[in-house]
UniProtKB/TrEMBL annotation:
InterPro entries referenced in this protein's UniProt entry, alphabetically: AMPK_gamma/SDS23_families, CBS_dom, CBS_dom_sf
Any Gene Ontology CC annotation: nucleus
Domain CBS intervals: 40-98, 113-153
Quaternary data: AMPK is a heterotrimer of an alpha catalytic subunit (PRKAA1 or PRKAA2), a beta (PRKAB1 or PRKAB2) and a gamma non-catalytic subunits (PRKAG1, PRKAG2 or PRKAG3). Interacts with FNIP1 and FNIP2.
Annotated family: Belongs to the 5'-AMP-activated protein kinase gamma subunit family.
UniProt keyword annotation of Lipid metabolism present: no
Domain of life: Eukaryota
Keyword terms: CBS domain, Kinase, Repeat, Transferase
Listed name of the protein: AMP-dependent protein kinase gamma-subunit
GO MF: AMP binding; kinase activity; protein kinase binding; protein kinase regulator activity
PANTHER family assigned to the protein according to its UniProt record, in alphabetical order: AMP-ACTIVATED PROTEIN KINASE, GAMMA REGULATORY SUBUNIT, LD22662P
């Protein structure tokens, strides 16, 4: 699967190669970059359509991935892709039909859910390539933009 992280790595490769021009990117094909990025490639993690919601969630968390393709075992075709967002939406839509554990009434802070330390940020004058590097190096998908006082802008 081609991910945003892969695309960022492609852009980094062009940026860090003085002999390459960004215009060349228009002529490249995905097969070229599969070869270039092969050393950084992670194995494809997938599940079958008969797997449980629990197995899907466990796979996403255990493998630290955001997207989980569901593969037809007979054809090898991707049937659909499960994401954290889709699972949360499903749980929200069906929350009234599910047993409600008391933990749902606790605050996020009390349950220590979230990133509380070392939150990566950027300033408005941060170079794009620096922001892209932060995405890849810190394995994050969002970067709060803050002013000189650390306030979100």
């Amino acid at each position: 699967m081609l991910t945003i992280t892969d695309f960022i790595r492609i852009l980094q490769n062009f940026y860090n190669s003085p002999n390459r021009k960004m215009e060349e990117l228009e002529d490249h094909r995905l097969e070229t970059w599969r070869t270039v990025l092969k050393d950084e490639a992670r194995p494809l993690i997938s599940i079958r359509p008969d797997e449980s919601l629990y197995v899907a969630i466990r796979s996403l968390i255990h493998h630290k991935i955001h997207r989980l393709p569901v593969i037809d075992p007979a054809t090898g075709n991707v049937l659909y892709i499960v994401t954290h967002k889709r699972i949360l939406k499903f749980l929200y839509l069906y929350i009234n039909e599910l047993p409600k554990p008391s933990i749902l009434h606790k605050s996020l802070k009390d349950m220590d859910i979230g990133t509380y330390n070392n939150i990566e940020t950027a300033r408005e004058d941060t170079l794009i390539i620096e922001a892209l590097n932060k995405f890849v190096e810190r394995r994050i998908s969002a970067l709060p933009i803050v002013d000189a006082d650390g306030k979100l802008v």
